[in-house]
Write a structure and sequence with these properties.
Elements (H helix, E strand, L loop, with lengths): L1 H13 L5 H12 L5 H13 L9 H13 L9 H10 L9
Helix pairs in contact: 1-2, 3-4
Length: about 100
């Protein structure tokens, strides 16, 4: 793939006027994924999170949850204390207002 990119970079540098359409086609082809494993992994993550009981998840929330599940720490290594402290101090919540 790197050699193909170098080839099209060379063509772009020295023959841009003669091969403009080919360069546009090459740019599109070089941006396409070679395999679909990443896409399949994304759909699998989405299906794990958006179940029948959680079908009202919005796109933004689903994206955040997918990012956490894909990139976050292993659950057994996650310490929720800092996140909980931040959440409770972020604004006055009825849950913690014992007046």
């Amino acid at each position: 793939m790197v050699q193909m990119a170098k080839l099209w970079g060379f063509i772009s540098a020295f023959h841009k006027n003669e091969a403009l359409n080919l360069l546009q086609l090459a740019a599109a082809a070089l941006t396409l994924p070679i395999h679909t494993a990443d896409v399949e992994r994304g759909f699998s993550l989405q299906n794990d999170l958006k179940t029948a009981t959680r079908n009202r998840l919005g796109a933004e929330r689903l994206q955040v949850l997918m990012m956490i599940k894909a990139e976050g720490p292993i659950l057994s290594q996650f310490d929720p204390a800092p996140a909980l402290k931040h959440w409770t101090n972020a604004k006055q919540r009825k849950l913690f207002n014992f007046k």
